[in-house]
Amino acid sequence: MNTHDPTSEVVTTLRQIIRVIDLHSKKLIKDFGITGPQLIVLKEFKKTPEQAISKISKRISLSQATVTSILNRLEQQKLAVRVRSNTDKRKVHILITEKAEEILENKPSLLQESFSIQFNKLEDWEINMILSSLQRLSFMMDAESIDSPPVLIRGPLEATPSEASNYLQDEKNYY
User: What global pTM score does this model have?
Assistant: First the structure.
């Protein structure tokens, strides 16, 4: 009798991936007091402080409304401020604060950064195999129509660190 159950192995592997994302999100909140999306937005504001939110949202593959909501949270945490342009009062620049600079100096990383380094080391045939397998899994789970930004995080994108932490804590009972 064959005890090898590929379905269980696939589900177990998917759960491991979900779990590592959860753990990384918790570590980011615990160590730096920010969520993954907040880190993404802070890094982008640092790179291009005078860019419009619409341009930043396109670059990081999040909706403008989501980036605005994240910015509101960053302002509440005193990590970013909105400043009107001196030359064009219709424009608003986003500046990160000294507190945010200190966080970024500690180089918090996103899970997809380390993943990308490893993934890019693969041969083209391995990349294509993984991509096609994941796309097939997405289809089999009826998930291909769900809009998802390329961000490896768990919880609501607009959450504060405490909301995200609570979300992750509540979700642990789900698995």
Answer: 0.69
